[in-house]
Amino acid sequence: MYSLSKYNRLLIIQTSFIGDVALSLYLVSVIKKFNPKCEIHYLVNDTSKHLLKISTDIDKIIPIDKKKIKSINQIFNFTKDLNKNNYDLVINLHKSFRSFLIAFKLSAKLKIAYSDAIFSFFYAKRVQFHRQLHEWQRALFTLSVFKEYNQELIKKVPNLGFDTSRENHVVLAPTSAWTTKQYTKSGFGEIVNYLVSYNIKVAIIGSNQDKEYCDEFVVSDLVTNYCGILSLDDSVRLISKSLLVISNDSAPTHFASITNTPTITIFGPTVPEFGFSPLADNSHIVQNDKLNCRPCHHHGLNKCPLGHHKCMNDIRINNITDKITDILRLTKH
User: Fold this and answer.
1) Which domains does the chain have, with CATH numbers?
2) I need a labelling partner for 275 at 20 to 30 A (CA). Which of 21, 22, 137, 170 fits?
3) What is the pLDDT of residues 141-195, one digit of tens each?
């Protein structure tokens, strides 16, 4: 049986989506708990690098620009520099061919990956990818090869220690990388109006590409559009002090999870059973669970395959505002 205490410098590889990176911070925290002296490096997609600044357990952030590092030669040259760090442990959370090549070329003593990852037989240790578990639990299960691991680790969500002194604002994340995962624009508009009617400040977050779309929600001095202004780490800090986060099934839900911020997540083409449900103590799911066509895709699509988008269009606004009322303990008008 391996022991985490014997490894001095390790590399975690997760170059997938921002939400996956956020949920992997539970793994980082547990590793540091078992081996406080180990040096943790994290290889992450360039677009997600700022998110990792929120973790005091990560000693070095290594960004990779996947648009520029594509060919095998480019990957091998990139890995040649990585090898100078002399890793003795590599945990690969991503299943892509590129991530495999990087891990394969590293001269670490121990390499761990999921058993269903591409070319997983090349790894010294393979662990099962448990589809019935939440993503944070699946990541933690990579530690099951070590003697420090026990089943209790995945029964309770670890506290990552964020400052959660709440302020009088609610964070809205109306957009998504996949259009079908977005709740209706009119619906989010009604949510904004509802919050403003209670004199609650509304902070809207998203990327620079979302700015114009979200400008239409700025109907009052109480509403601020932070799209393209806040970095990922600043967005997490904003959420950590929020009364509530209202989001589609996208990264801000997971930012709320790691900061234990009350959450309402609206699911459309995807379902919580995929392993990305909100984790905060006070979290709620809104979805249309009467449709046989759900889920239609693991990530969501840019267009409803059936052309009706009922998974979002048929969600009544009061299903959301009633939850807002309960969470914020508002007195109905």
Assistant:
1) 4-154 (3.40.50.2000), 169-328 (3.40.50.2000)
2) 170
3) 999 999 999 999 999 999 898 888 899 999 999 999 999 999 999 999 999 999 9
